[in-house]
Amino acid sequence: MGAFAELYEDLHGALGPQAWWPAESRFEVLVGAVLTQNAAWRNVEQAITRLRDAALFAPEAILAAPVARVAECIRPSGYYNIKTQRLRAACEAWLALGGEQGMAPMPTLALRNALLAVHGLGPESVDDVLLYGFERPVFVIDAYTRRIFSRIGVVDPRAGYDTLQQQFQADLPVDAQQFNEYHALIVQLGKSFCRPRQPRCGDCPVLSRCAHGRAEMNQRS
Prior knowledge:
This protein is mainly alpha-helical and 221 residues long. Helix content is 63%, strand content 0%.
């Protein structure tokens, strides 16, 4: 068992099942993936609720609505003018690809490439949609992942997205459910313990494996 697999076992044992991503449909995962860029999830939830309340929570409705109306609905997520354009592009792609029925049978690589071609959808956003929306075994790399595993000392913080993704996927079973759970555990660890500033190293469940955490604790003692 490699370092990534061992850390998964540690986190799962310490933090328990996370049951993530919080969405009711595949389309909601897509919307969330766009709106969560540079935003706290609680703000994304507000934006999604506002879209629902305005009867705009469907790709056809978003595209038919005035741009300013959509922008006002998603204002809580921040950068709302830019995200409105990205959300519209994502909705156009959703419909062009045949919606859920058209996208579900597509091979993973073909679907990933099609979504990466959409304006405003980068690898992290696309892989969120693939993993959490379509249950495909692709590991999501985000800021939490990069920070935590570079602090532990098992990845280069300067490595590219695809390189880090390949490192995780090479050490883990090809299992969408485990990738889902692992990424959710990483997010929880990053929010609760491995914060950018004033990390809670003393309470961290993977302190024994973390070079940064041990150095931090030595400085405090």
